[in-house]
Amino acid sequence: MPESQTSPTVQISPLERAFYSRDPRRVARELLGKVLVRKRGRQRLTARIVEVEAYLGEKDPASHAAAGNTARTSVLFGPPGHAYIYFIYGNHYCLNVSCEPEGRAGGVLFRAVEPLSGVEEMARARGIEIHGAKKDVKDLVRLTSGPGRLCEAFGITRVRDNGCDLTSPASGLWIGEDGYRARGIRTTPRIGITKAVDKPLRYILVGNPFVSRKTSR
Fold first, then answer.
1. Cβ-contact 94, 151 below 8 angstroms
2. Paired strand residues for 109
3. 63 with 199: CB under 8 angstroms?
4. What is the C-alpha separation between 19 and 110, in angstroms, rounded?
5. Which CATH number fits domain 13-205: 2.30.30.40, 3.10.300.10, 3.30.470.20, 3.50.50.60?
């Protein structure tokens, strides 16, 4: 497995709200290497964050916040550290976290994560068969490489998770740190959008096989 793997017994501490109350570009870069956690009953799914994109609020034409504070986008204008979920292409959900102080919109989109624990549960949620005790990276990449895939693997939907507090383990979906420090971060233009396509606001862990799309930049 890649170097970013960790023991499932390692303590994961939730990130505080102040972490998100900043410019989305800083938040995005520092989210790399952090851990996304889903807790359902006795099940705990965890994955290392390896690819994100920053969206800069009302002045960013690629951001949903550019439409203003609406019923759909209100989470982006609310307190930082909350999940903003949207449905895209009539096919899959995308997970974002709100940034900036309350009243000022900003967010970070999660594009890819690297599974750490709960792989079998993720595979079942994705309808993928993974055989053997020693999982092959090529199989695991299909679970969480891409924003839609990671949401499906973690059972993330707008009805269930939109607006949930990602700073609180009590929410069942949260983000924490386990002491891992990201090394080798690359910045590229965002992908899968049609506006402000040249802004260098996509952040990836260099060399991580779970990054959703390779780039030469």
1. yes
2. 53, 96
3. no
4. 16
5. 3.10.300.10
- Please calculate the CA angle 84-30-117 and round it to the nearest 5 degrees: 70
CA atoms in the 13 A half-sphere facing the CB of 175: 28
Q: What was the pLDDT predicted at 41?
A: 80
Q: State the helix-helix crossing angle for 119-126 and 137-144, rounded to 10 degrees.
A: 60
- The pair of structure tokens assigned to 210 is 């779970």
pLDDT in tens, 38-69: 998 888 999 999 999 999 999 999 999 999 99
The pTM of this model reads 0.93
| Predicted local confidence at residue 175, as pLDDT | 98
Domain ranges of the chain: 13-205
Q: How far is it, in rounded angstroms, from Cα 194 to Cα 175? A: 29
Residue 66 per-residue DSSP state: G
